[in-house]
Amino acid sequence: MSNNLAKSSITFSLMTFLSRILGFVRDVVAAFIFGASPGYDAFVLSFQIPNLLRRFFAEGAFSQAFVPVLSEYQATKSPEEVKTFVNHVSGNLALILSLVTIAGIICAPFFIYLFAPGFDPSGPRHVLASAMLRLTFPYVFFISLTALAGGLLNTHGKFAVPAFTPVFLNICLIMASCILAPYMHNPEMALAWGVLFAGIVQLLFQVPFLLKLGILPKPQINWTDPAVRKVLYLMAPAIFGAAISQITILIGSLFASFLIAGSISWLYYADRLMEFPLGIVGVGLATVILPTLARQHAAGAKQEFSKTLDWGVRCVMLIGVPAMLGLFLLAGPLIATLFQSGKFTDHDVLMTTQCLMGYALAVMGIMLAKIFSSAFYAMQNIKTPVRISVFILFFNVILNALLIRNFAHIGLALATSLTSLLNAGLLYRQWRVIHGFRFQAGWNLFMLRIACASTGMIIFLWFLSPNLTAWLEWERLQRIINLTLLVVGGGILYSGILFTLGVRPRQFALRTN
Predict the structure, then answer these.
(1) Model confidence over 253-264: pLDDT tens digits?
(2) Residue 379: how many CA atoms within 13 Å on its side-chain side?
(3) Is the whole model's pTM more than 0.90, yes or no?
(4) Are 33 and 177 a contacting pair, CB within 8 Å?
């Protein structure tokens, strides 16, 4: 069956775009109601810990181990054998998640102490974060089973539903902030309840679609199934590799717990903006490309495999470069327009702007790492990216320790960027060494065109964007109008230069069998 990867990627990206827009609404609401307060610091940490585990058991290590094996089974086994495999995986996963969730709830204060040693163990931030973590930890159970459902839908070419599902997290958090928070002694506690409800809703949302396709799992615990053992074998070393970006951000929060109150929140708001292009482009491409690469590897189609990987990297460069530059050049206007109101002060805008400028470089590194990692996972080679991730993790800790001394929270953001770029570079180098990967013809001309278009966009944004002081003096409507003109104008100029230089959409309409 012919599958247009570009069309699938666009569908996934559009659904993700809707989720990210609601995510911005959620963050704007949170900034207005909670600001960069100690209580919001506590919530950010209590949500980052289950988010890290989500990368292990959800779209991270589990998906990257499960999808290739499932694709292999679908290509070589009978439908009954595939269903049995899925039932066994879902049963074993549910059991593991139940045990992890119970342990997390019991040991919540220990986790807060472990990941935020700068919080006074008897202080309000530690106590509040521990209480929040007991509510947010079950999110790992529900969202991981949601990821299992999403993986099944993706392998059947249904990318829109899993991509739309995160919308419910944003809706639940917005409702918790606006409706529940005013009635709670600690308003930030409402956000923790919102996370819990969101996990339940996201899982239930996908059930009807699984039923329609006739692929709803019937969980069965079976540790002797060879396919289940293979998933576990692939998953175990993938844990570090799949969650490396989340681990580095959590390490940043760990160091930030020793800085002044609000530092964790500044890093969080900046990270949310950095995650916008990553979620739409990086995650979208990696999600769509993984099943295709797995099928091509299983079929022994080496040339098609290489062509698909090359296509993924080209897409990252085409969109990732202007996204990175735009975040850096428009960091102040973006933060001021989206967040400056209510309890989010001018000082918070300045501090968060500095974080976002430090994070901007990470966009390209994380996107490229996702594409190259997907290629390794598709070949069921988990050890190579994991070895790189372990090295990257130690490198990140050292960078954080060095840069925090002179640059405080800015140094933590910059450490994440440098780490992500090194990670992508090492993954690419290993692809060349182990698999002899070479880019397809035409890359020099392609990069020259991107460089010309990017230069034009930089000049446009540099000369037409006022300084941050002016943005802070404007009313929000004026900020929105000016920011829209800059973003749309920069995007049109970038696209126009590329079109003039011969880049056409049809050149990215890769079709695979």
Answers:
(1) 788 888 888 888
(2) 18
(3) no
(4) yes
